[in-house]
Amino acid sequence: MPSPNEAACLRACHECAVACLQCATACLREPDPKPMAHCIALDLECADLCQLAVASIARGDEQVTAICTLCAQACSRCAAECGKHDMDHCKRCAEACKRCADACGAMSN
Amino acid sequence: MPSPNEAACLRACHECAVACLQCATACLREPDPKPMAHCIALDLECADLCQLAVASIARGDEQVTAICTLCAQACSRCAAECGKHDMDHCKRCAEACKRCADACGAMSN
Amino acid sequence: MPSPNEAACLRACHECAVACLQCATACLREPDPKPMAHCIALDLECADLCQLAVASIARGDEQVTAICTLCAQACSRCAAECGKHDMDHCKRCAEACKRCADACGAMSN
Amino acid sequence: MPSPNEAACLRACHECAVACLQCATACLREPDPKPMAHCIALDLECADLCQLAVASIARGDEQVTAICTLCAQACSRCAAECGKHDMDHCKRCAEACKRCADACGAMSN
């Protein structure tokens, strides 16, 4: 069974991956997606790392802490970029990224 | 925002992916993993399809329904195999697989 | 060891996944990415299915044929969309998608 | 277009992911998979990181160097474990892991 930290991180990583991919899709559907290009790129990188972290925690990988540390960095970058935009999908994504960065950070404690 | 069916499927796919990978790891740690080899193989296939389904639903992929249909089939196979074994990790995985098969099936309604 | 069909499909799926993600990134960097939004969405879906197909063939999954069939459909859709655009990254992606659709189709023969 | 280092790393990561998953499946099919349990676990972790590295290089992710560094570490661990075993699938996997560790290491130069 996962520890409380692991259980919280599994949930946060899942929610962050979903929020990032929803944000990327919504950004692409904006009338002018050009100003969102950086946001979309960070969304995709962050979502991939979050899904890897989910798998890694569930398997109990040897390098799970390092994976979560890297995931936390991707989350922080994505939160910073999404935080610059006013659209609801960016706000939701920034919040999910912040929560996930915290949960991933707690994995190394 | 995801529809109620999509939201339920996102959650079920995530929980199933985690349960499958936890089951695979626990099977490998059994004193004799040989009788669990088929279970482990189905766990890995199912987990990968569940994580693809999560990404596909979140992105709103064109082929999301077909992906969920395939995921439901993997879940049903994995549930059937896990259901043959008495270990807690197999029971939990079988339950998660059944719920995910149902949620994925509902995506094509 | 993989059969000749499997070896060809592993290579084609890898090259297609890479071409799709390179195309998506290049589309996002176009001066006006709006006309490329559909292309980007199909690139991401196709790349994910190609990477799943690689894993599935390598593992020898029970549902590998169905996964390759679905992957071939994503490749065909992506090839059709990329084929509408004149940029080099789209042309290269369309070619990789066509080769992958053929290789995935041969997996069910 | 990818640089020579990136092109070499894309190929090495793909070949390593495939070799790892083939090794895991072959280990599970051994008459007694128990002594292979650690090898299987490292195979799965390494394959996932290799597939992430492929996607990350192809997208040109901001954190691609850090991802490749982590991937190189997984490859080195997996090569060390596979190197302890005499089966052909382990030997092939150890070689692919060593090549991938080198190629991923060259990404940070």
Question: What report would you give on this structure?
Answer:
The structure is a homotetramer of 109-residue chains. Chain A has 109 residues and is mainly α. Chain A has a single domain, classed as Substrate Binding Domain Of Dnak, Chain:A, Domain 2. Helices cover 79% and strands 0% of the residues of chain A. Chain A contains four helices and no strands. The longest helix of chain A has 25 residues, at 4-28. Chain A starts with a helix and ends with a helix. The model of chain A has no long low-confidence stretch (mean pLDDT 97). The interface between A and D is medium-sized, with 20 and 20 residues. Chains A, B, C, D: It holds the Pfam family Csp. Chains A, B, C, D: This is Four-helix bundle copper-binding protein. Chains A, B, C, D: InterPro entries: Csp_YhjQ (IPR005560), YHJQ-like (IPR044543).
In a few lines, what is going on in this structure?
Chain A is 79% helix and 0% strand. With 109 residues, chain A is mostly helical. The longest helix of chain A is centred in the N-terminal third of the chain and has 25 residues.
Topology diagram in text:
Four copies of one chain form a homotetramer.
Chain A: H1 4-28, H2 37-59, H3 64-82, H4 88-106
Helix pairs in contact in A: 1-2, 1-4, 2-3, 3-4
